[in-house]
Amino acid sequence: MSSDLYETLGVSRDADGDSIKKAYRKLARQLHPDVNPDPETQERFKDVTRAYEVLSDPEKRRMYDLGGDPFSGGAGGFAGAGAGFSFTDIMDAFFGGGGGAGAAGGGRGPRPRTRRGQDALIRLEVDLAGAAFGTTRELKVDTAVLCPLCSGSGAAPGSSPTTCETCGGRGETIHVQRSFLGEIRTMRPCAACRGYGSIIPEPCRECSGDGRVRSRRTLTVKIPAGVDTGTRVQLSGQGEVGPGGGPAGDLYVEIHVSEHPVFVRHGSDLLCTVTVPMTAAALGTTIDLPLLEADLVDADSEESGSDLETAVTVEIKPGTQSGTEMVLGGHGVPSLRGTGRGDIVVKVVVETPTRLDDRQQELLRELAGLRGEESPDGHLHTAGHSRSMFDRLREAFGPR
């Protein structure tokens, strides 16, 4: 093996840090003992690791380029024939981690105190008219907000976080363990500062150092026209404030539409049922059907005198059968995304009288006589099939 560290890694003398790291990762994947346990390969792996330990450290590399001994005085964890290296860099070589090996042995730095807050979800019940035409509601929400005393810093007024003396602000500490490869150094979050790299000597008494407190506040929510049960309205930045006074998450308002006494919603259409007496269905009639807009009109509001259409006349033609459906176009729910409105589908149910006095029975018998229906036969409809159900049953179970 060459004694030149650059040649050992296969890089030029003017190679930058990224090129050195890339070369080391490539060789480590080939030479690591878990991949190739051959003794000669293990020795070469130690040489490659030793070269990377020097060339990845700017100070040691400068000393090596000037002809000095970068391992003098046991620096870098080497002693005699032993080899020291960062276990973090080995893991990076195999799993593509982003940590580099500096004077601290490849640490990734302290984790930030300030982080984005979580999103929040609240459910809101609205009536059908409010969901169809849009409405504005006020909500009381209980979320984490910025601490008013420390403004999110977590430190008591007049104080500030200080650098952790244990890790020197890196947020990590080096733990050395001996193995057959030499000294293995692993990076662990600093126990003193919990990986932040700094310590708050005097936490804020209001938030206990978290930078946020819980508070109830009132928000105005604009519900767009056309929403339905399950629709979520997003309010950006109205969720939980993050730790350390970090940016707030989003608040999602999930809509639940309450039942309506007249209409049942089906997509953008409104379904309703109208019951008419048998005589009205036979002779024909008209009914006034209230529209959904009628729910928007308050008798004491200024809208009560407006031109808002609140009802429509539905014509029941003579001879209308029970189950007949009529479509009133353009009176349904406005589209949430796009233009236009759905329809109102009116289903007619003909009500047959259950109690008749003597005179009513006499008149109905007279009518039945006039229509030749004193003893009418029922008709079985096959609903579009060419053969009746009974025909198919006879074919299936009849004599063979």
Automatic annotation (TrEMBL):
Binding-site residues for Zn(2+) 1, renumbered to this chain: C147, C150, C204, C207
Keywords: Chaperone, Cytoplasm, DNA replication, Metal-binding, Repeat, Stress response, Zinc, Zinc-finger
GO CC list: cytoplasm
Region of interest (Disordered), ranges: 371-400
UniProt remark on cofactor binding: Binds 2 Zn(2+) ions per monomer.
Residue ranges occupied by any CR-type domain in the UniProt entry: 134-216
Zinc finger extent (CR-type): 134-216
Localization in the cell: Cytoplasm
Residue ranges with Basic and acidic residues bias: 371-380, 388-400
Organism superkingdom: Bacteria
Pfam families: DnaJ, DnaJ_C, DnaJ_CXXCXGXG
Domain J: 4-68
Chief location category: cytoplasm
Residue sites binding Zn(2+) 2 per the record: C164, C167, C190, C193
Function field: Participates actively in the response to hyperosmotic and heat shock by preventing the aggregation of stress-denatured proteins and by disaggregating proteins, also in an autonomous, DnaK-independent fashion. Unfolded proteins bind initially to DnaJ; upon interaction with the DnaJ-bound protein, DnaK hydrolyzes its bound ATP, resulting in the formation of a stable complex. GrpE releases ADP from DnaK; ATP binding to DnaK triggers the release of the substrate protein, thus completing the reaction cycle.
NCBIfam families, A to Z: PRK10767.1, PRK14278.1
Subunit structure: Homodimer.
Family the entry assigns: Belongs to the DnaJ family.
Name listed for the protein in its UniProt record: Chaperone protein DnaJ
Organism: Nocardioides mesophilus
Originating gene: dnaJ
